[in-house]
Write a structure and sequence with these properties.
heterodimer; A: mainly alpha; two-stranded antiparallel ribbon; 23 helices; 46% helix; disordered C terminus; B: 241 residues; 6 helices
Chain lengths: 567, 241
């Protein structure tokens, strides 16, 4: 008979190795399950490959031949091409387009020539050709013996690792304790699904990793989410947000850098910023100075400071927090898979390509945008308002209100220094303004990229809506969600007062290009809490107040421009 | 003049050659196979030579109209690809016949083939002024080898020559045909333009036209026979029942 049966004894591992090598390189091929080039210790049949298709002489494996082969397969049965073959075919059609007539016609001729043969011979030839292409154009996810040619080592445990296939490294070195099972070995992708970046319920091993160090927690997206949740409950989410925006700046495109730096400054660093972060004076000075000429690493000092702050302070508390305890409790520990050989074959057959990285990136972006929209801030600190007897200005001389009463440092929208954190100038109450700022902030988070104009109109609309709702809404309900832990430890310091009605529509004063320093007397142990106790009184006084003066946050790097009253 | 039909003949021959080549070293390897290989490649070479001359001549002609030039270039690219394929196969056969000598039939690999007449299709084509030679005697295997070596060199030379003499920008060529091979399309060479017959070389023209004529005749004969059989069957069945 023309079919030779190749039996491999289980006990003889040497024979098995040799057999595996033969089949992986294409000297023999399996008759069933042709896609997996392995020797199975059962009664499955193998056949010798014809010398024309041997890899010995290392003849070049031409793409032209592959294209002809795929075209032939398609003639035999339309639509039979697998996904990766289809992709190859399309790619070749693009790159070898000039030869395509030849390829199609040659495929037809080869098909017809094959028909001349007797049926059994035709089948044998088809099997031979198919086996050849499984060796030289392996399906994705397969370990190919052709990766390093005939010099490839089978045993990855040998000392030299230079010639190793990456897949082998994965198989034998890492993922030893993969639960439920190592996908490289069993073709079952559950392990990857359970450990996706933003999975709802993490695995126990993953959660345990977070306890190793703060860096581990931050680098795992799921861990970071958890941490963010915890910080949100503690109302110190701005630290993490700042850290993340610094990362964004560092890793972002050069074109967006200036804009991002501006954004970060306005959101986190500036006097009276909605999400002001608590860094020491020296670092602030260095940072603000550097922001004059922003570059990728300009916020490094501040970022490190915040990182250390989180590590020493928040991380410890996070470990003891109910959020973390909850997560740990919910974490799953999957059972180990025990696949039979048939099931392994089934898995191999059902292999599918994973999501395209383009789609994954889109999903990430959507996630980021969603998170940006849900930012919860009302963290204006009373300590950031310019206290006349403490604050040190330089260069800003034209504020008529400066002597009268401390003006509320608000971020106004100007053409010169546009900010999505824009507030309409005709607000009527401090609390409204603050809420307004937070709403604007929600859109103006460094991660968001909405057009400035749109944000202005949106904030204006929101403002009018607020005014409508104001009648039925008491400040206590508005701020009910705020942390009750606010202690007015230094209650004697200035309170935020609405701008006096003297300058409703005054043109914004001329600014001088300087960066200003602010020395505010903040007790080191003070945490930034939203101001609750004073709100109600201000709310009551709201109706009598007039418009807001155009006080703007001046970016240190902006040059002076004469303003015309539009805010 | 070699028209598109001649080119598709070349493709046919090249495809047959490949099928034959895949049997070398296997259990169906034999003197006959080697002989068929030889004949097939000789046929291929003759066709190739003719097409090459024709194409080179026309493409070097500066006064060729633009559209015809485009078609010629298309054919050029297709032709050079088939030539490369043939060259590759010939090299493989040369290599393998070194390893698998017919003197030692035990060393032949049991590939599971039974042997069939692949070459019949290629060899049944009308010869280009050449008589069929008898089966090669066993002792002339080495001669065969050197002949093959020579012929490989010739093809190589032809390919080089083509590149030297005519400058065709391959990436500018746009194919006419579909992306997927359609087995049902009867017009093989529909994607290659039909050339106008050159009056200068009448010798080749009747060859291809004769081919068409033979095919039509054959078809007619088949239809006649089929009709006859069906009629007789009807009559017989009429007689039986």
């Amino acid at each position: 008979s023309s079919v030779k049966l190749l039996l491999v004894s289980l006990l003889s591992s040497e024979a098995r190795n040799f057999g595996s090598m033969l089949v992986a390189l294409g000297y023999i091929y399996p008759l069933q399950d042709h896609k997996r080039l392995v020797i199975k210790p059962d009664a499955s049949l193998y056949r010798f490959q014809t010398p024309y298709f041997w890899p010995t002489q290392q003849w070049p494996v031409e793409d032209t031949d592959y294209a002809i082969y795929l075209a032939k397969r398609n003639i035999r049965k339309k639509g039979i091409l697998e996904l990766h073959e289809q992709e190859h075919y399309n790619r070749l059609h693009k790159w070898m387009n000039h030869k395509w007539d030849f390829i199609v016609m040659q495929a037809k001729e080869q098909y017809r020539a094959a028909k001349e043969r007797k049926k059994p011979d035709r089948v044998v030839f088809e099997c031979q050709e198919r086996a050849y292409w499984v060796v030289h154009r392996p399906p994705p996810g397969t370990v190919s013996a052709m990766d390093y040619g005939l010099d490839r080592r089978i045993d990855p445990n040998t000392v030299e690792v230079t010639g190793e296939s990456l897949c082998d490294l994965f198989k034998y070195n890492s993922c030893q304790s993969c639960l439920p099972s190592n996908p490289w070995l069993t073709d079952d992708a559950t392990y990857w699904t359970l450990n996706m970046p933003n999975v709802e319920i993490p695995t126990k091993m993953r959660v345990e990793r977070w306890t190793f160090s703060f860096g581990e927690l931050l680098s795992d997206p799921r861990g970071r989410n958890d941490f963010r949740l915890f910080l949100k409950k503690e109302f110190s989410g701005e630290n993490l947000a700042f850290w993340e925006s610094c990362e964004d700046l560092k890793w972002g495109t050069a074109a967006t850098m200036r804009e991002k730096a501006e954004q970060i400054y306005k959101t986190f660093l500036a006097r009276g910023a909605p999400r002001w972060i608590n860094i020491d004076g020296k670092t602030m000075e260095v940072t603000v100075k550097g922001l004059k000429h922003p570059h990728r690493y300009v916020l490094d000092a501040a970022q490190t400071h915040i990182y250390m702050l989180m590590k020493k302070d928040s991380y410890g508390r996070y470990m003891k927090s109910p959020v973390f305890k909850e997560t740990t409790k919910k974490a799953i520990c999957p059972e180990e898979h025990k696949f039979s050989d048939n099931q392994l074959e089934q898995n191999a057959r059902n292999r599918r390509p994973s999501l395209s990285p383009i789609i994954l990136r889109q999903m990430e972006e959507e996630q980021k945008a969603k998170m940006a929209a849900n930012v919860d801030i009302t963290q204006l600190c009373r300590f950031t308002t310019p206290v006349p007897h403490l604050a040190v200005y330089s260069g800003i001389s034209d504020f008529p209100s400066a002597t009268a009463s401390p003006s509320l440092p608000f971020l106004a929208h100007t053409p010169a220094c546009p900010s999505p954190i824009s507030v309409a100038l005709d607000s009527t109450s401090a609390s409204e303004r603050r809420v307004e700022a937070s709403e604007g902030e929600g859109e103006g988070n460094p991660a968001a990229r909405g057009p400035v104009g749109g944000n202005v109109s949106r904030s204006r609309m929101a403002l009018s809506l607020r005014r409508l709702l104001k009648r039925g809404c008491t400040p206590s309900t508005m701020f009910a969600s705020l942390s009750p832990k606010c202690h007015s430890a230094a209650g004697t310091s200035s309170r935020i007062q609405p701008i006096s009605p003297n300058q409703p529509s005054q043109a914004p004063p001329r600014r001088i290009a300087n960066f200003f320093q602010i020395k505010v007397d903040i007790p080191p142990e003070c945490r930034i809490y939203p101001i609750e106790s004073e709100d109600e009184e201000e709310e009551n006084r709201a109706a009598s107040r007039g418009g807001v003066g155009a006080k703007e946050i001046i970016c240190p790097w902006e040059s002076l421009t004469p303003q015309n009253g539009t805010g | 003049i070699p028209g598109p039909l001649c080119y598709s003949l070349l493709l046919l021959v090249v495809a047959c050659y490949r099928h034959l080549a895949s049997c070398v070293g296997g259990c169906t390897d034999s003197l006959q196979l080697r002989d068929e290989l030889r004949q097939t490649r000789e046929k291929a070479q003759k066709l190739a030579m003719a097409i090459c001359q024709h194409l080179t001549l026309h493409l070097r002609d500066k006064s060729l109209p633009e559209e015809q030039r485009k078609e010629m270039e298309l054919l050029w690219v297709a032709f050079s690809s088939s030539l490369e394929l043939l060259h590759l196969d010939m090299c493989k056969v040369f290599n393998m016949s070194d390893i698998f000598s017919l003197a030692n039939t035990d060393a032949l690999v049991q590939t599971g083939l039974q042997g069939s007449e692949v070459a019949a299709r290629a060899l049944s084509l009308p010869d280009l002024n050449q008589t069929q030679s008898p089966t090669l005697p066993a002792g002339l295997e080495s001669q065969e080898r050197s002949t093959l070596e020579q012929e490989i060199g010739q093809i190589d030379h032809m390919i080089d020559d083509m590149e030297m003499k005519v400058n065709v920008l391959r990436w500018m060529v746009e194919p006419h045909g579909p992306q997927y091979a359609d087995p049902l399309s009867s017009t093989d060479s529909a994607s290659l333009a039909v050339f106008s017959v050159d009056e200068e070389q009448p010798g080749h023209q009747p060859l291809c036209q004769r081919n068409k004529f033979c095919a039509v005749l054959f078809l007619f004969a088949v239809v006649l026979v089929a009709g006859f059989i069906s009629v007789s069957m009807v009559l017989f069945s009429g007689v039986c029942f």
